[in-house]
Amino acid sequence: MSEPTPTEAAARWHEAKLNFAKEMSYADYLDLDRILSAQHPLSPDPNELLFIIQHQVSELWMRLMLHEIEGAMAALRDDHLPQSFKALARITRIMEQLVNAWSVLATMTPSEYSGVRPHLAQSSGFQSFQYRAIEFRLGNKNPALIDPHRHDPARLAVVEQVFAEPSLYDEAIRCLARRGFPIDESVLGRDVTTPLGEQPSVLAAWTAIYREPDRFFDLYELAEELVDLEEAFRLWRFRHVSTVERIIGFKRGTGGTAGVSYLRKMLDVVLFPELWRLRTEL
What we know:
By secondary structure, the chain is mainly α.
């Protein structure tokens, strides 16, 4: 019998499995063959692989983010606040990953991107149905933003369903009402497809919580988790704007938007206005 190679000897020592002819392997579990063969550059420019992978990885993170947002909302509906905290913290960490990912794309220079851009036609991140679902879940609802998805019934169904349902912040406000805070019926019974805007009764509730954090500590922690989330979302949007301006300047976006000018307007969107206003009120 031949002596084992150093690699085989080390594997046996640590009892690592070496033969996966009849067992599920790491690559099988992750379906790596499909994932790693999903990049199809259309240009001869070698930088296009970076552009594709950057956006594919972002979409995978967004898929997880939607899963966690839905989990946080379910926990809030059931008044299981500690479970919602875990999900909200994870969402914030996911957004941090998305913020950091822009620094990789920012290594693409305007000259390099010019070799890729003509091959994108009118495809654009503006058309991401998962990003749209995240915006709607966080309460930034605009019915016009459903339109880019009407060509695909399956994606349209996802976006329309999320648009029609309460947002994460709606569920947080309903939780306040169940805890005895006097939230106006105009807030609780409103059409959830319409923008909420700053509401005096909601501001009063959050302000009362911040004035007595020990008394309402779980709601106080909920508020801080939501602020963490929105701050991370703002950084994600800002890093997006900065990267786009660095690469294409003020050209129009491939999807027809005004590019940087449009993205800068999005920076002004406030998701949880009362949680920011109360800092002035205290």
